[in-house]
Amino acid sequence: MIVVGVLGLSACSALGPEASAHPPVAIARDHLQGFALTGRFALRQEGKNYPGRLYWRHDGDRDELLLSSPLGQGLAEIVSDATGARLTGSDGKSHTAATADQLLQSLLAYPLPLSRLPDWLRGCNPDNGDMALDTLGRPLRLRHEDWLIHYEYDSDDPQALPNRLFVEREGGLELRLRIEEWQMLPTALPAKSCTQ
Fold first, then answer.
1. Which has more confidence, 165 or 107?
2. Is 108 helix (H, G, I), strand (E, B) or coil?
3. In CATH, what number does 2-10+28-185 get?
4. Residue 103 exposure: Cα atoms within 13 Å on the Cβ side
5. Domain spans of the chain?
6. 136 in Cβ contact with 123 (< 8 Å)
7. Are 94 and 12 contacting, i.e. CB atoms less than 8 angstroms apart?
8. Which Pfam families does this one have (predicted)?
């Protein structure tokens, strides 16, 4: 299976920046456009688990996603922007496509909508999916087409960003994301509305 090939690549070096020595700063969900985050993920497909770590930088139409093993060995780098998407594995081989979604579809043989994840992370609902809010008015659950996203928070702040996302697709794919640190990036783009 290609998932094993993408997520099970051997590596010689760790990917991603070192953890910041600065204490975390609260970031308001409604003001987040460009961001960088670090965390852990677990992808479950067809009864198999693929755990790892990630660093993701989302700035305008450019995404840089670095995946590593739970112990920090580099697995893959995905870079996408208006000119296309490229995945480079730890073996140095590259794969390209017009978009990150098409790239992941071709490699995983399963749709994983990387283009929607920035909105889902912020709890945005741009396509009028079925959104449920918690008692503080924050996203709790979003059903979008055949995807279901659950949100959990470490803070009681009404503007808190989620620290855990559970993304499921009917048919068997599950993605669990534990976000350890959020960083807001300055961006020249106008604020994008976030409909809940």
1. 165
2. helix
3. 2.50.20.10
4. 21
5. 2-10+28-185
6. no
7. no
8. LolB
Sheet holding 84-89, edge to edge: 94-97, 84-89, 74-81, 62-68, 48-59, 34-45, 173-185, 164-169, 147-152, 139-144, 130-133
Tokens read off for 103? 């790239």
List 168's β-bridge partners, or say none.
148, 174
CB 78 within 8 A of CB 87: yes
Distance from C-alpha of 163 to C-alpha of 26, rounded to nearest angstrom: 12
Q: By the 8 A CB rule, do 95 and 86 touch? A: yes
Mean pLDDT of all residues belonging to the chain: 81
Bridge partners, residue 54, by sequence: 39, 67
Determine contact, residues 110/5, Cβ cutoff 8 Å: no
Q: Which residues contact 18 (CB under 8 A, 6 or more apart)?
A: none
Looking at residue 60, its pLDDT comes to 86
Residue pair 78/63 in contact (Cβ under 8 Å)? The answer is yes
Tell me the pTM. Answer: 0.79
Q: Which of 150, 120, 142, 93 is nearest to 37 (CA)?
A: 120
